[in-house]
């Protein structure tokens, strides 16, 4: 056997040390991010399991605003009053979504747990084995009673599949996640900031219902909360969507 030169031995040893250091930093980053999410989760009475460490890290590293794909829509109308935007009327095209139904005691628990399941799907736990990429907003379908005075517990958290995956979406490993095709829809959208819970959602529903000229054109018991920031963020950018009747 040929002897290893001191120079090549140094390089191979040096590179393995660098790899070890990189792995250690990788592990430390994973732990730091996981513990942050776990502390946020506790605030929503949600346990964030250890197997979320890798998806959280992947999502964080890929969380450049430039790399997020916004769900395409056609703007039909902007309704303003004294320079303030009251709402937008938009048309969203037919598209495929990865959906998961949740029914926790509190809305915040449902969206956090649903979002974590979708994160695993996005972060390689799918038939392509690839990171699928983030699209915004992540949406939650909520239901109320006919009088629009209270929300029901069951919600659906949904992720719009990126354009390149629309024709052949990767299959989720999680059998709770269903790929659905949603028809083209006209929505009335109004922005709001902050946390989303039963109280804030009912307030936003009532606010938009009061502003719309013809609320009777929309579904009375089904609404969408569109989230542009992840559920762990304190100051979230959200929208309430009313759906025009088909």
From TrEMBL:
Protein name: HEBP2 protein
Ranges of Acidic residues composition bias in the record: 17-28
Region (Disordered): 1-28
Molecular function (Gene Ontology), one example: heme binding
A Pfam family it matches: SOUL
Similarity field: Belongs to the HEBP family.
């Amino acid at each position: 056997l040929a002897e290893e030169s001191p120079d090549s031995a140094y390089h191979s040893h040096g590179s393995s040390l660098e790899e070890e250091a990189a792995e250690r930093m990788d592990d430390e980053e994973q732990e730091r991010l996981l513990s942050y999410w776990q502390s946020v989760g506790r605030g929503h009475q949600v346990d964030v399991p250890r197997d979320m460490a890798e998806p959280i890290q992947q999502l964080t590293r890929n969380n450049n605003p430039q790399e997020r794909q916004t769900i395409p829509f056609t703007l039909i109308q902007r309704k303003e009053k004294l320079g303030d935007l009251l709402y937008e009327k938009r048309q969203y095209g037919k598209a495929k979504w990865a959906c998961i139904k949740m029914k926790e005691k509190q809305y915040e628990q449902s969206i956090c747990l649903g979002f974590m399941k979708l994160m695993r799907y996005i972060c390689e736990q799918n038939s392509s084995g690839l990171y699928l990429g983030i699209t915004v907003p992540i949406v939650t379908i909520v239901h109320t009673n006919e009088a629009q005075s209270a929300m029901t517990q069951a919600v659906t958290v949904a992720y719009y599949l990126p354009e390149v995956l629309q024709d052949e979406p990767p299959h989720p490993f999680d059998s709770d996640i269903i790929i659905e095709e949603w028809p083209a829809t006209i929505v009335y959208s109004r922005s709001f900031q902050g946390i989303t819970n039963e109280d804030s959602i009912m307030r936003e529903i009532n606010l938009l219902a009061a502003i719309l000229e013809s609320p009777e054109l929309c579904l009375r018991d089904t609404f969408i909360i569109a989230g542009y920031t992840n559920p762990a963020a304190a100051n979230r950018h959200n929208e309430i969507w009313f759906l025009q009747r088909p």
